[in-house]
Amino acid sequence: MAAPYGPASGDLARAMSEAGRLAREAGAAGREARIVVEPGEGPARVVLAFDVAASQGAAGAMARTLLERRKTPGEGERPR
What does 6-48 look like in DSSP terms, one character per residue? Predict the structure, then answer.
């Protein structure tokens, strides 16, 4: 999640408060949240990612799958 803040007095405090609220909501839903509070404009932005713990033996499975797909050209790809 990215919570932007502007230059006005209190903007940083509001962004931190919003980030904390969203992190608590994620925790209540059994999820972990990675939060970045940064200078910028607009509302808080959330990116959803679904990570699989390495202890489950699936670490790197997606990367391997994508690399294997690059070995043969697919739709819209040019041979290397």
Answer: -SSTTHHHHHHHHHHHHHHHHHHTT-----EEEE-SSS-B---
Pairing of β 2-5 and β 36-39: parallel
Judged on CB neighbours under 10 Å (0-12, 13-18, 19+), 6 is middle
Distances (CA, A) of 68 to 49, 65, 73, 74: 22, 5, 10, 11
Matching residue, tokens 């040019």: 78
Q: Rounded to an integer, what distance in angstroms lies between the CA atom of residue 34 and that of residue 13?
A: 18
Per-residue pLDDT reduced to its tens digit, 12-69: 999 999 889 988 998 898 888 888 888 988 887 877 666 655 445 554 555 566 566 6
Report the predicted TM-score, pTM, of the whole model to 2 decimal places: 0.55
